[in-house]
Design brief:
single chain, about 350 residues, alpha+beta, 5-stranded antiparallel beta sheet, rod-shaped
Length: about 350
């Protein structure tokens, strides 16, 4: 696969004017190129640069500067955001006159110029507050700065804890700019007090940074809040599930115990019933058998009596004839057969 080269960022361009002369500033890919009137010598340009490095050494650490006949090139060790360049140009615009005067007179310093500029800014701030606003997701936050105090007003549904978390992240990222400040947070309002007066350019720079990074702050806070909410909900759900499982187990155990007791009772009842049924059946069968036997015996006795009578008669007749003896024998056999038949028939019933 062929990788497409990354598109180069568009260069940032600015123009500064003083005493009818112009200087242009172009920034791209970590390099700022300053073009100024060529009658300014390299020595004068380096003198102004020395004053700038002395006043703003914290911001210029690691940079490389070259000066060559009306062109100065300043290379940074990392890329800068547009808000950073805007801030630097605003500072340069407010102090370039003092750079020039220091080069011409050779006695004024950038620090004195900065002090004078700060005093001027303070007097202007006393007369009129600096007002700015930031919009995000359809909501508005307002920033008002006056007399070393910045007041930030935001939607009051944002909790103090959420604002404190965002402030903590801001202090971690920009601690060097916020040294000596004091922050107090109320409902929908945060007040940031600075140890020294700041200029309108400083406020604009801070607002530009805030507009750029506020979505990331909100996203990080929202993500952490959602994660914490999900974790709390999961913990609560797990506890509820455990409680429900315990209750279900206890109910099941109770049901099993009740079922076992019912089964035992049913078995006892069934055993009693079976015993009773067996006793009844045995008694009934014995009684029936006894009755049947008695009846059979009675019938047999009657048959025997009849047979005896017949035998007597036959015996009397046998004296007269052998034929009569045969008849008696036949009658006895028939009577015995009849008695057995009757007995068998009653047993079947």
């Amino acid at each position: 696969a062929v990788e497409q080269p990354a598109a180069e960022a568009e260069a940032l361009e600015y123009t500064l004017s003083l005493y009818g002369y112009q200087a242009t500033i172009t920034y791209a890919d970590g390099t700022a190129t300053i073009t100024y009137p060529s009658f300014i010598t390299n020595e004068e340009a380096m003198q102004a640069a020395a004053l700038a490095y002395q006043a703003y050494s914290d911001y210029l650490q690691g940079t490389e500067l070259t000066v060559d006949n009306g062109v100065a090139t300043l290379k940074f060790p990392y890329d800068l955001a547009e808000a950073d360049i805007d801030y630097a140009v605003n500072v340069a615009a407010s102090e370039i006159q003092y750079y020039v005067n220091s080069m011409i007179g050779g006695t004024e310093s950038i620090q004195v110029a900065s002090a004078a500029s700060a005093e001027s800014a303070e007097s202007e701030a006393t007369a009129k507050a600096i007002e700015r606003s930031i919009n995000l997701y359809g909501f508005e936050a307002k920033i008002s700065y006056q007399d070393k105090v910045a007041t930030i007003t935001y939607p009051d549904f944002i909790t103090k804890e959420e604002v404190a978390e965002a402030a903590k992240m801001a202090y971690a990222a920009y601690g060097q700019y916020l040294q000596g400040t004091e922050l107090s947070i109320g409902k929908g309002t945060a007040v940031l007090t600075f140890p020294a007066e700041i200029t309108e350019a400083d406020v604009d720079y801070a607002v530009a940074l805030l507009e750029k990074e506020l979505p990331a702050y909100v996203a990080s806070i929202t993500t952490e809040h959602v994660a914490a909410t999900v974790e709390a909900a999961a913990t609560e759900a797990a506890a509820a599930a455990t409680e429900a499982a315990t209750a279900a187990a206890e109910a099941a155990a109770t049901q099993v115990a009740e079922a076992a007791a019912a089964a035992t009772q049913a078995a006892t009842t069934a055993a009693t019933t079976a015993t009773t049924a067996a006793t009844t059946a045995a008694t009934t069968a014995a009684t029936t058998a006894a009755t049947t036997a008695t009846t059979a015996a009675t019938t047999a006795a009657a048959a025997a009596t009849t047979a005896a009578a017949a035998a007597t008669t036959a015996a009397a007749a046998a004296k007269k004839s052998n034929v009569g003896l045969i008849i008696v024998i036949v009658v006895l056999v028939v009577a015995a057969a009849a008695a057995c038949f009757i007995l068998l028939k009653k047993k079947k019933k």
